[in-house]
Amino acid sequence: MTWRKRLFDLFFVALLIVILAPVLLALLLWLLLREGRPVFYVAERMKGIDQPFNLWKLRTMTVVESDAGVSGGDKNTRITPTGAWLRGKRLDEFPQLWNILRGDLSFVGPRPPLREYVERYPEVYREVLKSRPGVTGLASISYHRHEAALLARCTTPEETDAVYTRICVPAKARLDLIYQRHQSMCYDFDLVFQTIGNLFRRNRGQNRG
Fold first, then answer.
1. Between β-strands 106-108 and 51-58, what pairing exists: parallel, antiparallel or unpaired?
2. pLDDT of 43-71, one tens digit each?
């Protein structure tokens, strides 16, 4: 990561923390009252081949003893009503500001993968993770809805894993490497604005619906 990109991250994460702190506190209280503890979901992700870190989100699912693999249709019954609303607004991602502040994430980059996929496809992720993982990115903007639709149709963990590894991993890797080749501060700004625009359009559509 260049010093300009890191400076960009630090400036905007500090600004957003100041602006959004009351919103996050209100969400935490609401989630605590509606769903109880824990209010945070903390899971291991990878920012390099041998570099794990804890990714923070607001909890949107019921707690189970073992929760492996990516989320597909087989896990949909665990999404709480509050969690579905948070996911629809992408508000469950707010705690990742802490990950950006720590340097685990950037605002823009490939989404951080699970360890099991990095270990299964090291040649793919050795290239993808040359870029610092991010909260949003080219693959998130271009492929997220299609990926979500594919995985939502899966009914077992095995089917979810098969679809994710056969279709989603290579598709997202191609997009992440395109971003890597063309990465610049102007490109990052463009992807951030595209993300904000997509959120506004999605929320407006949900409100109309």
1. unpaired
2. 999 999 999 999 999 999 998 876 777 88
Name the percent of the chain lying above pLDDT 90.
Answer: 81
Q: How far apart are CA 23 and CA 97, in angstroms?
A: 13
What are the pLDDT digits (tens) for 123-151?
999 999 999 999 999 999 999 999 999 99
- Per the domain annotation, does 206 fall within a domain? no
Structural domain harbouring 114: 3-196
**Res 201 pLDDT > 90:** no
Residue 204 domain-assigned (yes or no): no
Q: For residue 209, is it within any domain?
A: no
d(CA 189, CA 12): 12
Rounded Cα gap, residues 117 and 165, in angstroms: 8
Cα gap 113→117, rounded to integer Å: 7
pLDDT of residue 206: 59
Residue 111: closest CA among 99, 98, 123 = 99
Cα 54 to Cα 14, 124, 160, 181: the distances in Å are 20, 22, 23, 27
